[in-house]
């Protein structure tokens, strides 16, 4: 595995390490919003977990099993609305466990791929290119986009 991929995977793992730090939070904090009208911490973790589950089941696991990638362009707003609803009706511990589990499934399957498979471009169900290094970069950005405000918010609560 190239240093670039290993570095991407280590950065990609930061989300799970961060989620583990949230396990001690009271339920009241899990259900608090960073700002009025914004998502709760629980909604954000649900949102990322469900994206991980989607990409795992429709792309990464498929590649590991040498099956066609089945990703489709989704309506992000609809997906995110469903993620928030899922968060409201699901125990926090279950969301945390699934967030960690799916992220590690992705990482383990990627680590199990050959160098050739890692750097191959795949076509998804709609003929769009799926490329593992780019996927990792995109989701690292996405993780940071959510983690940075969360870290600032939690630091304020502790102060």
Write the layout of secondary structure elements.
Blueprint: H1 3-21, H2 27-30, H3 41-64, H4 76-89, H5 92-111, H6 115-118, E1 121-123, E2 129-131, H7 132-158
Antiparallel strand pairs: 1-2
Helix pairs in contact: 1-5, 1-7, 3-4, 3-5, 3-7
Radius of gyration (Å): 16 Å
Question: From N to C, what is the helix and strand string?
Answer: HHHHHHEEH
Strand content: under 5%
CATH topology heading: Four Helix Bundle (Hemerythrin (Met), subunit A)
The CATH C-level class name: Mainly Alpha
Largest sheet: 2 strands, antiparallel
Q: Count the domains.
A: 1
How many β strands by DSSP? Answer: 2
**Class based on secondary structure composition and strand pairing:** mainly alpha
Q: Which of globular, elongated, flat, extended, rod-shaped describes the shape?
A: globular
- Main sheet strand line-up: 1-2
* Second CATH tier, the architecture: Up-down Bundle
Characterization of the model:
The chain is mainly α. The chain has one domain (3-158): Up-down Bundle (Four Helix Bundle (Hemerythrin (Met), subunit A)), CATH 1.20.120. Helices cover 70% and strands 4% of the residues. It has seven helices and two strands. The protein has helices at 3-21, 27-30, 41-64, 76-89, 92-111, 115-118, 132-158; strands at residues 121-123, 129-131. A two-stranded antiparallel ribbon has the order 1-2. A hairpin with a 5-residue loop joins strand 1 (121-123) and strand 2 (129-131). It is globular and about 50 Å long. The mean pLDDT is 95.
């Amino acid at each position: 595995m190239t240093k670039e991929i290993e570095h991407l995977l280590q950065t990609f793992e930061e989300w799970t390490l961060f989620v583990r730090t949230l396990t001690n939070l009271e339920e009241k904090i899990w259900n608090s919003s960073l700002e009025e009208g914004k998502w709760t911490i629980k909604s954000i973790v649900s949102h990322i977990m469900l994206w991980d589950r989607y990409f795992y089941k429709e792309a990464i696991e498929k590649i590991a099993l040498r099956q066609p990638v089945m990703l489709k362009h989704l309506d992000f707003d609809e997906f995110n609305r469903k993620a928030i609803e899922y968060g409201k009706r699901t125990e926090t511990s279950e969301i945390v466990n699934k967030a960690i589990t799916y992220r590690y499934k992705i990482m383990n399957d990627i680590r199990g791929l050959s160098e050739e498979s890692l750097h191959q471009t795949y076509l998804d169900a709609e003929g769009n290119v799926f490329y593992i290094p780019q996927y990792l970069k995109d989701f690292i950005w996405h993780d940071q986009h959510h983690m940075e405000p969360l870290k600032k918010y939690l630091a304020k609560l502790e102060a």
